[in-house]
User: What shape does this take?
Amino acid sequence: MEAAVSTAPGERQRALAAAEPAVLIDGVSKTFRIPHQQYRTLKERALHPFRTRTYDVLRAVDEVTLTVPQGEFFGIVGRNGSGKSTLLKCLAGIYQPDNGRIEVDGRVSPFIELGVGFNPELAARDNVLINAVMLGLSRAEAARRFDDIIAFAELEEFVDLALKNYSSGMAVRLGFAVATQVDADILLVDEVLAVGDASFQQKCYEAFQRLKDAGKTILLVTHDMGLVEHFCDRAMLLERGEVLHIGDPGAVGRLYNEVNFGRLVPEGAPDRLDQTARAAEIVACRFESGGAPAPDIAQGEPLEVIWEVRFFDEVLDPVFALSLRNDAGHTIFTTSTAWREQHTGRFQAGELVRVRATFDAWLAPSRYRATPSVARAGSGASMLDLREDLASVVLHATRVTGGVIDPPHTLDVERVEGEAP
Assistant: This one.
């Protein structure tokens, strides 16, 4: 059932703490058997009926316990293969857990895999009506909301086109539009929004905000830590099926990066997580002004962010980048050598590199945290290391304008016609 949850942060947390559970997961595990010998045809099975049938056991979800109160926006993060999607499918009833229990209070709308529930031979019109009815709407209600669904998906021109002729982006837009129009209490959303274009993703984010404000319970699986920090009340980090941490989205995001770049090694993890297997590591970061460390700085003063990177393998033209976030968690400034089309050079194992970003601190009063990174060059650059909030500086000023920047500027008032009486 829905819970009325205030949008004010303090009030929202108190309301969630008092809310009844919408999702209860108690010691849930799910394993899969992967056979060493797989038969692809009936002929193979007939020719080798007594071949040894051995298999490996993959523990995709391992003793997960979690309670999500009504109205909470909850993030589930982890590397590929960590068990995120498997857990969501257990909640949706697609998989039956091997042990443990799951209790769900309310109607569930799963949006887990692209195209699930759609018939590629049917047009969007038929697929929308069938899918909406399957998700709990009456046929009359589905027909009444049809125009809104198609408008949200921006598919008015393709409503009578068979779904098999849709692009993946068009199909995901249609699926998301249906899922958000259903009167569900609990939404399960997997990492499918990455398929949509930027403008549609923005519409999805606005829809998320509306659903959050309406008191819906949302469980979101994603790799986008910015999305988690912006929307989620809490988040959970999974690694190899186990819960590493449940709590503040920012803390979970930082732990996710620790796992992703090998600085946090879960028990039983393979050696490839060890830092010696990585090509580069950020070893230091600091703020300076006038050549001296700057724990705090006055508005408008020259400011430098310096970070040092040690290389363990040869890397050609690595991309160095930096972002600054204020106390509210908003990204205020980013820069990257890739945007400047800089050829940074070839670095050998053992080399230490110092990177320096310099600018005048015309920012609003706040504490600012630096997140440096280094990646391989190329489109879809492969991240080598990233350190969330590795260094901070407090910026002070004589006035607070309410903006996020306060640059030097002029403000002129000019009479264009008439005179004062």
Summary: The CA atoms of residues 78 and 238 lie 5 Å apart. The chain has two domains: 9-106+185-260, 276-396. The domain at 9-106+185-260 is CATH 3.40.50.300 (Rossmann fold). Residues 264-276 have pLDDT under 50 and may be disordered.
